[in-house]
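Researcher: Here's a chain I'd like modeled. Treat it as a single chain, no partners, no ligands.
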Amino acid sequence: MSQEVNDAKEEKAYFLSVLSTFQSYREQSLLRIEHKEKCLATLPSYHKKWLSKYKEDLDRFKECIEKNSKFIPIVLQHAHTIFDNVYSNDCATHAEIKVGTLSEGLDKVQSVFKQLMRDWSAMGAAERSQCYQPIIDEIMLQFPEDKFDRLNVNVLVPGAGLGRLAFEIATLGFACQGNEFNLFMLIVSYYVLNHCKKVDEYIIYPWIHQYCNNLSAEHQMTSVRFPDVKPMPTPDSKFSMTAGDFLEVYTDHDQWHCVATCFFIDCAPNVVQFIETIYHILKPGGVWINLGPLLYHYSDVKNEKSVEPSFEVVCEVIKNIGFEMEQCKTGLKTKYCQNPKSMLQYEYDSVYFVCRKSFEVSNGNGVEDGRDEFL
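Model: Modeled as a single isolated chain. Structure tokens:
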């Protein structure tokens, strides 16, 4: 068996495991509540009497999980069409592939529900204003309508999640492409962007699995409706989403006028690779706009070769690669998928910067000015 066919089988197996994990959401979530009910049953009778309201709350949580779970088959009925060209081949049938659920899967599904709140609900508007609006404002300043035909301005949004930032940029008339690696996000974003037809069409409970730091059970059962806008760009807009590893998908140099990254660069084991790739794929004179923290997602992952430089060191790397830092701000207050009613609120002091790739580029025979080729 060739390596290519073997890789295709592994990718298909992973895809089917993601689907299976989505399908297990209801069962696994209810099992967690069942465990809590069993713990409650072991308590002294008078404790159980005092906790009768808690027992009633657990029953109400089950109802919310049931409602969340009804959205999943609606999404999954379209999931196979996302990767028709990749997974609808004959290299392996479902029967040949052992399909299971992913060990971290339930957390990933829960994360998608919270991301739907952030990207596509009215309640998420405050977080989007903190995190997306500075990037959008800068793009509009960099490419004013009186000087640029925005349909010819190519903007890339790596780590696009459920696609709201890329959607908003495309809605403003830019040719925008979002890129995402997480299959859980890709499956749900595909449905939202292609099949949601009405505003506030669905209702979900993003924090129903957040059992700690609740002033009341109602706060855990906070619901949101989505989408808050009809997520369909105008017929004239150029908007697309791609699936895959950013480093593998984007290898062609000098393609993009702008790369916009939000809560993204710390998703790499080696942040330098991300910065190098962003530099190479930008056109001479192109701009990189970034906002987010440095959480370094691989920092505590076993057997992962992760480096975690400080922002001071990251800035040196940016300059060494060849970028010109035009703006840099620290301490921007940003939240990520937070329940506004929770007793615990995580808030990042994020960094925001704007970098430019020089117009002067080496062509192998010296240095030439790339201004005429920018658009």
